[in-house]
Amino acid sequence: xxxxxxxxxxxAARDDASRPGGPADxxxxxxxxxxxxxxxxxxxxxQAGRSLPEYRExxxxxxxxxxxxxxxxxxEITLQPVRRHKVDAAILFSDIVxxxxxxxxxxxxxxxxxxxxxxxxxxxADVQRIRPIGRDDxxxxxxxxxxxVKELGDTPLIGFAGAxxxxxxxxxxxxxxxxxxxxxxxxxxxPELWHALAGRLAEVTLAFLRVQIAAGVSAVQLFDxxxxxxxxxxxxxxxxxxxxxxxxxxxxAGIPRIHFGVGTAELLGAMGEAGADVVGVDWRTPxxxxxxxxxxxxxxxxxxDPCLLFAPWPVIEAEVRRILDEGRAAxxxxxxxxxxxxxETDPEVLTRVVAxxxxxxxxxxxxx
Length: 368
Ligand code: CP3
Hints:
The protein is an alpha/beta fold. Helices cover 47% and strands 11% of the residues. It has helices at 2-6, 11-17, 27-32, 53-58, 64-68, 71-85, 98-102, 124-128, 139-152, 164-173, 181-189, 191-215, 232-248, 268-272, 287-294, 313-327, 347-361, and strands spanning 90-91, 107-110, 114-117, 157-162, 219-224, 257-261, 278-280, 299-304, 333-337.
């Protein structure tokens, strides 16, 4: 065990994880790898969060960024939905701006608003101030992942980071934005500065994911939540090279990589080219259509509309059936929502959806 705390490659953790029935042999990881599964695995983006009363309680007097920097809180919050819903994977509790703050950007997460940046990044000098990061800049993430891997046993832990475009939008706009006007103005008006910024964010993201991989996560997801704001041509020119730096840069890690965005129907093919094993699909594109766009060599993840969880149960049940049917067209399917769990969601409905996905997708063991 001592070797695990000093190991910086993740090799020891991975060897242990790949034992039969271990996290690397779990239904979630197997589906990502397009291998046969005993049932369709399911987890939910934002499963650890405001929909859970136990989460609201633990966060009552702790600011969001502070909670991300306390391994005891990160561990407890990450485990909450696993205990409650019996999902097939945990996702590290953190936020996409955590590595950017570690890289020296002065920002805060404001309740009800989201990330707010004190001095928006708009010049070459601003870009220069974003420092490269390593393990010692985010020791709390390294520690939380190691604690979680022990606590989770056979349940895989998903690490994550924000993609260069989505991160750049927060940094350039200074906060959440509907139209990404300043970001696009910079992109079109000063492509060289844009590529310098996105390139630097790609390095920060790659380093941040490497810390999580070395600490033992079983998969990673790159969140490009706002990529759907771009045309395919602009996505290919301004974003794809940088997301490729991140995803293809992790090819040697040997763990599944998931690439997710919202409103990306026209981008699914391009997003699949960045080097992921799994492409996340929102509710606007049926999974059979999505898999035709992405190609037969990648699994898909999705894609129940988070708002559907507010419908009567028979409606939810019919939609879960439809998504499982459409997902059979893909070479691997991880059931999820098309975007994160909304804070007002009844957690009991989430628990029921997990049980339903498992029941409807159960396949008899080989040879049985
Ligand atoms: O869900 C919660 O309430 C948990 C706490 C929380 C997180 N981020 C965790 C998180 C809160 C309050 C935030 C702030 C924040 N950061 C917001 C929400 C603003 C609000 O009050 O409604 C937003 C939009 C951000 C920026 C952000 N963080 C983006 C765009 C993403 C990518 C995923 C997405 O939703 O599009 C994140 C990732 C994130 N923040 C995760 C978690 C737990 C990712 C992991 C997961 O899916 O569970």
